[in-house]
Structures are given as structure tokens and as C-alpha cells.
Amino acid sequence: MCGCKYTPIKKARGYGPEIRQRAVQLYVDGMNLRRIGRQLRVNPQSVANWAKAHAEGLPAAPVPEQVENAELDELFTLNGSLTAHMESTGQPLAVMDPFIVATALQNNLIIATRNVTDFLPYGVQVINPWE
Fold first, then answer.
1. CA distance 77 to 8
2. What is the pLDDT of residues 9-24, one digit of tens each?
3. Whether the Cβ atoms of residue 34 and residue 44 lie closer than 8 Å to each other
4. 81 vs 75: CA distance, rounded Å
């Protein structure tokens, strides 16, 4: 004898789909694995496995061939690096100039201004249409 007991109706094992869906939703909402495990009384590794399986079942994110809009956080990062560079060289810096330059660099634009000398150190294309 193997010691196994025969049952006519197979006993359900594991967690139901409701628990799994709730765990994935909590994870997507930002709750950490251990807290989800404590709240739902499941192993945190099970939550991680469910979240991974859910992510693998999602369709691939669409990626545009050409980006037309710059993200603001990229502009702020570029603005910060431009500001730091100009301050390290000891050159005076206007408040909005780095944002104008970051936008122009990100979108391959030319700046049209009478104040050409303030923009030349940034390495961006500048024209003075009034000359």
C-alpha cells in the first residue's frame, strides 16, 4: 500500500482566482509583497509568482518609432545638468534659459533671439532674426 487515500471528489489545492486577482491588484497599486502576504494570509513568494505570471500575460507595450514630445522629467534632468555646468564655469545664468535650451536640444530646434550671447555657451543653434 502507498498510504494514499482515495477520494471520489478531488480536493482543491492552492488559492482561488479571487485571492490571486486581489493580490496582483494590491501589488499593482504599490503595496509590497510582504504586506500583501500578511493581509491576504498567503506566502509573499506566491504573490511574486502571481504578479510575474500576470505581467507575462500582458501584451507588449507599444513603442513609437519616433518620439515627438519630450518628457518633462527629461527636460528637468537636462536643465539640472546644464545649470550645474554653467555654474561650474562661473558664467551668469538666467532662470528660464536652461529650460529653453533643454527644450531646443530635446526637439532639435533653433532658438531665435536677440540675446544670442547668452545661449551660445550651451551648444545649441541660435539665430538672431533681427540682424
1. 65
2. 766 678 999 999 999 9
3. yes
4. 10
| CA triple 121-123-129, angle to 5 deg | 90
Residues 82 and 119 in one domain: yes
Which range marks the domain in which residue 30 is found? 17-56
Distance from C-alpha of 57 to C-alpha of 51, rounded to nearest angstrom: 10
- pLDDT of 79 over the 80 cut: no
Give SS3 for 59. coil
Q: Residue 20, Cβ neighbours under 10 Å: how many?
A: 20
Q: What distances in angstroms separate CA 32 from CA 26, 28, 35, 41, 104, one per listed residue? A: 8, 9, 6, 14, 40
Q: Has residue 63 been placed in a domain?
A: no
pTM listed for this prediction: 0.44
Count of domains in the chain? Answer: 2
DSSP 121: G
